[in-house]
Specification:
Rossmann fold, five-stranded parallel β-sheet
C-alpha cells in the first residue's frame, strides 16, 4: 500500500510529511526535477521513484492522483486543505514572482504573484475534482485541514495506526495576519473595486 498526499503545496503537506515519518513511513517530498519529463507526459521516472518510498507529499503527487490510483490500486490518498484565502496568502508570500517549472506545469504559469486568480481557480478546482473522483470510495480518501484542528486522530484512524504519544508536528506555521492587508486589497481587485 502506498500513501499519496494529494493536497496542493502550502496546505500542510510538510506537517503531513513529519507525521508520516513519525509513524514510521519512508516519505518522498517534492520532486521538482520531474517537471521536464512531466511536460513530455513521460511518467517512467515517476513510477521508478514511487517504488522507492511508502508515502509521498507535495509536487507532483497531487496532480497525478488519477494515474497513481490506477498504477497503485489499494493505495490511500490524503487531501490536505486550507481555507482559500489562507492558501493563496501563503502561496503568494512564499513563492512571489519566483518562477518554477513545476508550478508552470501545474498552473500554466510559474509564479503566483500577479497570477492569483489563476492559482486560486486551479486550487479550488483540484480540491473539487479530488472529492468527486473519490466520492464513492470514502475508505480511500481522507480529507484533513490542520487549521480546522485535524491531527493524529483522523490520520491514524484512516491509516489504521495507533495514535502516538506525541504532539502533532505542525510545521511552517506563519503569521497570516501580516498578509491580511494584501488579501483585502486582492479581493477588492477581483470584485473590480
Amino acid at each position: 500500500m502506498k500513501i499519496f498526499c494529494i493536497g496542493y503545496h502550502k496546505t500542510g503537506t510538510t506537517s503531513l510529511d513529519a507525521a508520516l515519518r513519525q509513524l514510521g513511513y519512508n516519505v518522498c517530498g517534492a520532486e521538482t526535477g520531474l517537471a521536464a519529463t512531466l511536460f513530455e507526459n513521460n511518467l517512467d521516472p515517476v513510477w521508478e521513484l514511487v517504488e522507492e518510498y511508502d508515502a509521498f507529499h507535495d509536487n507532483p503527487w497531487a496532480v497525478l492522483y488519477k494515474e497513481l490510483d490506477e498504477q497503485y490500486p489499494n493505495s490511500k490518498f490524503i487531501l490536505t486543505t486550507r481555507k482559500n484565502d489562507a492558501w493563496l496568502n501563503s502561496i503568494v508570500r512564499h513563492f512571489g514572482k519566483t518562477h518554477s517549472e513545476m508550478r508552470r506545469w501545474i498552473y500554466g504559469v510559474g509564479f503566483p504573484k500577479g497570477n492569483e486568480k489563476i492559482y486560486l481557480e486551479k486550487y479550488v478546482k483540484h480540491n473539487a475534482d479530488v472529492k468527486s473522483y473519490f466520492e464513492d470510495r470514502k475508505d480511500d480518501l481522507l480529507e484533513v485541514s490542520w487549521e480546522e484542528g485535524n491531527g493524529w486522530k483522523e490520520l491514524c484512524r484512516f491509516l489504521e495506526q495507533p495514535i502516538p504519544d506525541l504532539i502533532f508536528p505542525h510545521q511552517n506555521r506563519a503569521n497570516t495576519a501580516r498578509m491580511g492587508k494584501w488579501w483585502k486589497t486582492f479581493k477588492r481587485k477581483l470584485k473590480g473595486e
